[in-house]
Amino acid sequence: MSQFSVKSPKHCAKHHGLNVEKRYKRLFYAFSTFIVSLLSLVLLIWLILHPSKPEFHLRDADIYQLNISSPHLLNSSIQITLFSKNPNKKVGVYYEQLQVFASYKGQQISVDASLPPFYQGHGDSNLLTASLNGTGLPVAPSFSYDVGRDRTAGKLILTLKVLGQLRWKVGTWVSGRYRFNVNCVAILAFESSVVLGPVSTKQGTQCSTTV
Asked: Where does the chain cross the membrane (predicted)?
């Protein structure tokens, strides 16, 4: 007597479901392996190249106006020139959404000035100029006293800040955006007893960069 078996529809459906599930698992594992390999390659390139932070120097800072109008409102006009350099030999840098402003003893004394986006190749450098102005900016009641004390000392210390985003470029690969900020300290000597201007810095002031 010959034997034969008949599989029920329920059994066939179960078997077909297992095949589909195995296929999806294989696709998932293959995709996961590809992503991990790609990320490992990017990390390896990153560790080998190890990009250094961009370098900034304050070349010039000139104050043409910095006076108080009642009640405690400030008018300012400052011109600055920054030297920017990419120290990397194999990594380019894209700079975007650049904002520059000046502050004095923690108080912002100019509105934000925008700089155009630009690309810096391997070892390239650029000069960046910005006009920082403010009309009727509110300042603390102690502002006039602090300025008067600095006038007696014969020097004024300003902080010039650059905020923005950068992207690293290695070959055709471009990284995501990273926020960075630059802080430059400008020590200026008083040359006028009426209004604080014009006053200039020395050249070559080093700035700190944080990414």
From this structure: 27-49
Q: What's the confidence (pLDDT) of residue 9?
A: 54
Distance, in Å, from the CA atom of 109 to the CA atom of 107, rounded to the nearest integer, reads: 6
| CATH value at residue 193 | 2.60.40
- As given in the structure block, the two tokens for residue 206 are 């080093």
pTM here is 0.73
CB 185 within 8 A of CB 206: no
Q: Which of 115-119, 132-136, 173-177 has the lowest mean pLDDT?
A: 173-177
Q: Which residue has the tokens 């959404």?
A: 97
Structural domain count of the chain: 2
Say whether both 84 and 127 belong to one domain.
Answer: yes
* Residue numbers of the domain that contains 26: 1-50
Q: How far apart are CA 129 and CA 193, in angstroms?
A: 27
Examine the domain organization and report whether 5 and 79 are in the same domain. no
* Mean pLDDT of the 104-117 span: 94
Do 185 and 206 belong to one domain?
Answer: yes
Tokens 């008949």 label which residue?
6
Highest mean pLDDT out of 40-54, 92-106, 147-161 = 92-106
Distance between CA 196 and CA 156 in Å, rounded? 9
Residue 76 and residue 65: Cα distance in Å, rounded?
5
Phi, psi of 53, deg, nearest 5: -65, 145
